[in-house]
Amino acid sequence: MRKVFTDIKLESEFRKNGYVSVPFISKEEVQNLKDKFFDSIIESGGQITSGETGIAEGRAITYDFTFIDKNPEYKQRVFDIITKEFKPSMDKLLDNYRPIIANYIRKKNETGEVPLHQNWAFADERKCSTVSIWCPLVDSTVENGTLQVVPGSHKRFGELRGPMIPWELDNIKKEIIENHLVPLETKAGDCVILDDSIVHYSAVNKTNDLRLAIQLICIPSEFSSLHYHMDPSVSSEKVNVLEVDVDFYMQFNPWKKPTGVKILRSIPYTHHFIDEKEFMQRINAPGFDEEKTKHGLMSKLKEVFS
Ligand SMILES: O=C(O)CCC(=O)C(=O)O
Ligand SMILES: [Fe+2]
C-alpha cells in the first residue's frame, strides 16, 4: 500500500482509525487564510441552488462549499490561495501528495449541516489512500458544528463513490448519526487528515459566530486522478471511470454531466442497502484494500508450498 505520511506513527494511526488529528499551520497563516477568504469572496458567483441542479426531487443544499460556486475563476482563486499557504506544512506531513480540490467551508448561525457522507473516490483506493486535510480557521467545537467521524469506517463501504451513485448507507443515516459518530473538536490551525472514504458528518452551527474551515483534497502525486460517474438517465447499472485533473473540477459540480473527458472503463454496478448490523460487521472486518492483499498473500503462500 502506498504510504500517506512521512511519519510512521501517524501512518499506523491513520490506517487503524481512518483519520489523525495534528497541528498544521501557524496563527499567522490562519489569519492570512481568513483575510484572503473575505478579500476573495466578492468574486464568488454564488452557490448553486437546489432549483439549478436539474434534479427534480433534489433536497435543499444545506452546506456552503467553494466547490459548488458558480464562478470557475473564483474556484481557481481559492485553489491558488489555499494550496500556496498549505504547501510547506502539507509537504512535511504527507509523503508526496498533490492537491485536487480546495474548499472554504462556511457555516453561519443555524446553517451549514453537512449530511452524513463519504467523500468521492479520487484515485484507485485499493492501491492508495486519498485524503482531505480539514483545517478550521476558528476553534471548531460541538456547538459550532465541528467535523464528526465514524472511526474505522474507512474503506469499508461504497468503493465506487461519485455523483448520482446510490449510497449503501442511505437507509441507516439516522442510526449512524445517533449512535456511531465521534465529534473531533479542533483548534484553529490544527487539522484532521481524513481518509476520503471515512463516514463523516457535521451539524449546524448553533453559535452566532462564523465557523470557517478549509478542506484540501489530495492524492498521491504519481497516481491518476479518477472520477467515478453514474448517469442514471443512461443506466443505473454501470459506473464510468473517468480520468480527470484539477481543471475538470474547476468546471464541474455534482449535478453536471461530464463532457470531453476520457472514459477509462465502465464497471457493472448493483446496488444494495445495508442495515445497522451489517454496518457494524463491516467496520470490524478488513477493508476492501486489505481483502485483496490477504488474498494475494494466500495465493503467494499456495504457490510457495505447492
Ligand atoms: O467542514 C465540515 O463540517 C465538513 C467537512 C467535510 O465534509 C470534508 O472535509 O470532507
Ligand atoms: Fe466530506
Description:
There is one protein chain. The protein has helices at 8-17, 27-40, 72-93, 173-179, 246-251, 276-284, 288-305; strands at residues 19-23, 97-107, 114-117, 131-136, 147-149, 182-183, 190-195, 200-202, 211-220, 225-229, 238-244, 262-268. By secondary structure, it is α+β, with helices and mostly antiparallel strands. It has a single domain (8-305), classed as Sandwich (Jelly Rolls). A five-stranded antiparallel beta sheet has the order 1-7-4-9-2. A hairpin with an 8-residue loop joins strand 10 (225-229) and strand 11 (238-244). Helix 2 (27-40) packs antiparallel against helix 3. The model has no long low-confidence stretch (mean pLDDT 93). Bound molecules: 2-oxoglutaric acid (AKG) and fe (ii) ion. Fe (ii) ion is lined by residues 117, 119, 200.
